[in-house]
Amino acid sequence: MNLIAENITETTFDEIINEMIVNAWYSVLEFHIHLSGIVVGEVKDGLERAVLKLSNISDLPANASKVEMLPLNMEMGLRFVESVYLVILMKRV
Fold this sequence. Notes:
The protein is mainly α.
């Protein structure tokens, strides 16, 4: 993870989740890579569902930078990690 490369020795769960989203963003949106299986037409991977949901509500492009993804997005009114929690809890895209 980039957090290790940035010499970060302490982090939070939120920062790790955010970094996972940043790392998966381009592959999921540009190449439509599934991070796990699809069962009866439904994406089962929570990280992939989070990327798809965040893409829909933020309108960020597939090639969005980490700088664009991580700050508070005024259109959404939620930090990315809060949206991830909502997606995981709702279990739908």
